[in-house]
Design a protein that fits this description.
By secondary structure, this protein is mainly alpha-helical. The protein has 20 helices and four strands. The strands form two sheets. The protein has a two-stranded antiparallel sheet. It has a two-stranded antiparallel sheet with strand order 2-3. Residues 63-150 form the Nucleotide exchange factor Fes1 domain.
């Protein structure tokens, strides 16, 4: 077998120092890769004047990266305007110190900030404005899952309980909203909180609080807690959470109805256990009765009731059979809504659910316009 000799051309490197003190080699000579004469057709050459695509700068992910990105972009722009000017000189100490001071002033010790917030909430439970300010600051951090988890690990949850149980409705709903922000799409926080009594506190607020905003925010927190978390859902069922949702729907408070139906629709999807629980407590019949073709005809409540009902009856012959009970008068209601809102784009989703239920329960084909619309 022929042997090949590959010669690597000289590599000249020049070191330049950027503003952050990082050293990067700047390659001045192209690399030439040559094979022996035995294999001339395998030779690969990189001509010195060959156009090589410029390396795209790394996208900034924090303040330090953003500053570096801006400096590099400015340098490239100036280089294009005056390519013959050498700008490879090191940054002088004065400018370097200024940039470092600017970066340090923008960096925040989040752990220290969380400790400060916890202390503020603990020591100022009766100072509404101070607590609101602390909760607002906290919301800036707990949108990050890591910082939300840190808040719980540092003992932040107990300082929220007095606010949730307190006399001021604004602090109650803000505390519930904070819990929702902490647990949303966050398995660690969900599993952490479900080990406490907070689910009971939230369910109590939903059912008994006199302020609708507190009820809605508490329901939002429960929804964030139990969706897509089997352990939390088991606790929710164990503590009779669906009965709380049923009473929310029966209250006919629009926001409570909408959020309750949304949660039911989510939990019913591909979950036969949830469907059986709801069937056993008469949820299908209640939803059919609560579909209102008079007072609520022009509200969003019917749309969300129908959405939840469509999820509940899907692939469930038992639920579909219940919908056909004559006293419920469901078919008449569905056809009335269908006729009333026909051609009105505002009610497009509601009409989708109407046709879905008619098809599933009464074996009526959906109109062609719904079969071909882009959903």
């Amino acid at each position: 077998m022929d042997s090949y000799f590959k010669t690597l051309g000289p590599l000249n490197g020049e070191l330049t120092e950027d503003f952050n003190g990082l050293l990067a080699p700047v390659i001045r000579q192209p690399i030439r890769l040559e094979d022996s004469q035995a294999q001339p057709n395998l030779a690969i050459e990189y001509a010195p004047n060959q156009d090589i695509p410029a390396r795209q700068p790394r996208q900034p992910s924090n303040l330090q990266d953003l500053l570096r990105y801006a400096v590099e972009a400015g340098s490239r722009s100036r280089a294009q305007e005056a390519p013959n000017i050498n700008r490879a000189a090191s940054m002088n100490e004065a400018n370097r110190g200024f940039l470092l001071d600017a970066l340090n002033s923008m960096m925040v010790n989040v752990g220290a900030e969380l400790e400060k917030i916890i202390k503020t909430l603990k020591e100022n439970q009766d100072q509404k404005d101070i607590c609101i300010g602390a909760l607002d600051n906290l919301s800036d951090y707990i949108c990050s899952i890591d910082y939300a988890n840190d808040f719980l690990k540092m003992g932040g949850l107990p300082v929220l309980q007095p606010l949730l149980e307190g006399s001021d409705p604004e602090l109650r709903w803000r505390a519930a909203e904070t819990v929702a922000d902490i647990v949303q799409n966050n398995p660690f926080s969900q599993n952490f909180i479900i080990q406490t009594d907070f689910l009971n506190l939230l369910l109590t607020s939903i059912e008994h609080d006199s302020n609708t905003t507190v009820q809605v925010k508490s329901l939002y927190a429960v929804s964030c807690l139990v969706r897509e978390n089997e352990e939390c859902l088991k606790e929710f069922i164990k503590r009779d959470g669906f009965s709380v949702l049923l009473r929310c729907i029966q209250s006919k408070k629009e926001k409570l109805v909408i959020k309750s139906c949304f949660l039911i629709a989510c939990l019913c999807t591909d979950n036969n256990q949830v469907k059986q629980v709801l069937l056993s407590m008469g949820m299908v019949e209640q939803m059919c009765v609560l579909i209102d073709i008079e007072d609520a005809l022009d509200t969003e409540m019917n749309e969300h009731l129908l959405s939840a009902l469509a999820s509940l009856i899907k692939d469930s012959p038992e639920a579909q059979s219940l919908c056909r009970l004559e006293p419920l008068n469901l078919k008449f209601k569905l056809n009335f809504i269908k006729e009333k809102h026909a051609g009105n784009e505002v009610y497009h989703k509601e009409l989708e659910y109407v046709n879905s239920v008619l098809t599933e329960v009464f074996e009526e084909d959906s109109p062609e316009e719904f079969d071909h619309q882009d959903r």
